DNA sequence: GCAGAGTTTTGAACGGCGTTCAATATGTGC
DNA sequence: GCACATATTGAACGCCGTTCAAAACTCTGC
């Protein structure tokens, strides 16, 4: 069989990624298998290997789209008056995660085999995200020297990831009071206000 | 076959966890399988199911020990003059992670099947860890109201986890300058110094 | 219409996985 | 020695990711 002509390769990739996203939303990374994706889109497992090098690449593509969605949410939130901007970004960040907690979890749960590096197109997504945060927050950090601002923003960024990761894995509730959003607000507002050491 | 009497059940669990830790150190979570652990300790795969309910429990036990080691490292670092304590804790934290980066990664990479809660004995480990940080740092946070201190410490704690997770998965280098330790120091020192919003 | 070339799709096959469980080998107490 | 209890085994099951020769399809040139 070949060229069923139902779908172009790009359409097939779209179908596969949508099916994968749905599987992840339902059961997390453990529920995402090549065979199940294939079944959901009505093709044989082998077909997926024409579209992606292997399951790892499919997961990376899925994660890239998750990052893109976050980037759009943050960019939209950044378009507000400077005074409210930091708070708006934090809210948008957690809104996005709560909309798709499993997909966000996969971002950290998935690791490439030892020795395999993340592809460039994936790194570009991370860059874009941090770039949005830097552009939005830098002007607010009047207490910081210009050259230190990016570093501080990366620290906040990583800090938010930590909070959200622990929250998604329900390892945060065990440890203390306060919802993740409050912790995120705390972290970001304190670092912005504090100024350098 | 039965009662080979080479090892008591507790000794067997010890052997299995040691083998598991070595496998993780070599290849990460992907390299940790029931069959390989069994092979390394010279028993059949089925035997491991007398010692652990399943592979998930084995991983949780391994993670619990990883948390215990971190707790000991932090407790040791906290026994220093208050002025140096925050910095000492951050250094000890990253020292520990660098000693076993793969094992630390497994802490976040591993998720239980959807719907399964973390067991109590695991939560106790998390509690002990955060308790050590709270006891060590609370006295330093003179700018914070007493009731807010724990919340702020949890936020820092989660923030450090974010930094270390991104660093271990090499998703941090892609995004900005500065080594993880510097970001950790920045986060902790700024929150401690800042005082509440 | 048709033949052949060129692709896409298939599905069986492979080795490995977690997990179960009847059968078995080894102890212990009599 | 013998029966009881238990720790251990390893084959079996159903799943997994991945490969690849064969098959099914489309397209081209006639």
Number of domains of chain A: 2
Can you name the CATH architecture of the largest domain in chain A? Orthogonal Bundle
What structural class do you assign from the helix and strand content of chain A?
A: mainly alpha
Multimerization state:
homodimer
Catalogue the unreliable spans of chain A: none
Question: Strand portion of chain A, in percent?
Answer: under 5%
Please count the beta strands of chain A (DSSP E, at least 2 residues each).
Answer: 0
Total helix count of chain A?
Answer: 9
Report the CATH C-level class of the largest domain in chain A: Mainly Alpha
Main sheet characteristics of chain A = none
Q: Any idea of the CATH topology of the largest domain in chain A?
A: Tetracycline Repressor, domain 2
Structure write-up:
2 copies of one chain form a homodimer. By secondary structure, chain A is an all-alpha fold. In chain A, helix 2 (34-41) crosses helix 3 and helix 8 runs antiparallel to helix 9 (180-194). Helices cover 72% and strands 0% of the residues of chain A. Chain A folds into 2 domains: 1-52, Homeodomain-like (Arc Repressor Mutant, subunit A, Orthogonal Bundle); 67-194, Tetracycline Repressor, domain 2, CATH 1.10.357. Chain A has helices spanning 9-27, 34-41, 45-51, 55-78, 82-99, 101-109, 120-137, 146-168, 180-194. Chain A has 9 helices and no strands. Chains A, B: Residues 10-70 form the HTH tetR-type domain. Chains A, B: Residues 33-52 bind DNA. Chains A, B: One of its GO terms (molecular function) is transcription cis-regulatory region binding.
